[in-house]
Amino acid sequence: MLPIGVLNLQGDVAEHLNIFKQIGVPALPVKRTNEIAGISALILPGGESTTLWKLLRIFNLMDPLRERIKEGLPVYGTCAGMILLANHVLDGIDGQESIGGLGITVRRNAFGRQVDSFEMDLKVGSIERFPAVFIRAPWIENVESTVEVLASVWREEREYPVAVKQGKLLATSFHPEVTADARIHQYFVEAVVGA
Ligand code: GLN
Q1: Residue 53 CB contacts under 8 Å (≥ 6 apart), including other chains
Q2: Rounded-to-integer distance, Cα 65 and Cα 145, Å
Q3: Which terminus in the chain has less CB density within 10 A, N or C?
Q4: Cα 97 to averaged position of ligand 1 atoms, centre (Å)
Q5: Burial of 179 (0-12, 13-18, 19+ CB in 10 A)
Q6: Whose CA is nearest to atom 2 of ligand 1?
Q7: Can you tell me whether residue 57 is helix, strand or coil?
Q8: Which residues are catalytic?
Q9: What are phi and psi of 45, to 5 degrees?
Q10: What does the pLDDT profile of the chain (195 residues) look like in tens digits?
Q11: Distance between CA atoms of 184 and 162, rounded to whole angstroms?
Q12: CB 11 within 8 A of CB 42
């Protein structure tokens, strides 16, 4: 299998690489179009989506990534990475673009009005009690019918999805890469990339 690439522009790059090392899956940092040609899947890390968007433009990666996603490249986006995968972004800065591909509408910094960061145990698909770390996290306000919801949280008397899957695309509002729990990365490798 070709290695998994971790987008190396800003954010939790080393953390994702560490988790793949822990589970023995080859992974490497990528930021150039020729590097993206040599990967079997891509991680869009947590970080800052506005900065990532600007760097994606500077490195001319927006259109090549949109192409690869259309062709079926498996991608997992955490937090800012989920914002980059979303087809629609609420509370973005002026002109903010996403790569898109995933049929969701996300709201940036949605949990920030109440608490900036928190951790909770969540059931994510068939994974029980995952230690989900939310850091100025987005939530999902709308999902298209193609999207499977794996986990949600209650806020303001309604449920907001925070983990979703659509074909080869996986996204979570929270950051498994900052925990020692590799189960979601393992799920990505086995059920999303491997399927
Ligand atoms: N609030 C950040 C953004 O909009 C995401 C935060 C994160 O990735 N922890 O990009």
Answers
A1: 84, 96, 97, 98
A2: 23
A3: C
A4: 14
A5: middle
A6: 48
A7: helix
A8: 79, 175, 177
A9: -80, 165
A10: 899 999 999 999 999 999 999 999 999 999 999 999 999 999 999 999 999 999 999 999 999 999 999 999 999 999 999 999 999 999 999 999 999 999 999 999 998 766 678 999 999 999 999 999 999 999 999 999 999 999 999 998 999 999 999 999 999 999 999 999 999 999 999 999 995
A11: 13
A12: no
pLDDT in the model for residue 113 = 65
pLDDT for the residue numbered 116 = 76
DSSP string spanning 6-57? EE-SSSSHHHHHHHHHHTT--EEEE-SHHHHTT-SEEEE-SS-HHHHHHHHH
Atom of ligand 1 nearest to the CA of 11: 8
C-alpha 152/C-alpha 186 separation (Å) is: 20
Cα 31–Cα 87–Cα 51 angle in degrees, nearest 5: 40
Identify the bridge partners of residue 120 per DSSP, sorted by sequence position.
132
- Helix (H), strand (E) at residue 110: none
Nearest to 175 by CA among 16, 6, 52, 26: 16
How far apart, in whole angstroms, are the C-alpha atoms of residue 167 and residue 164?
10
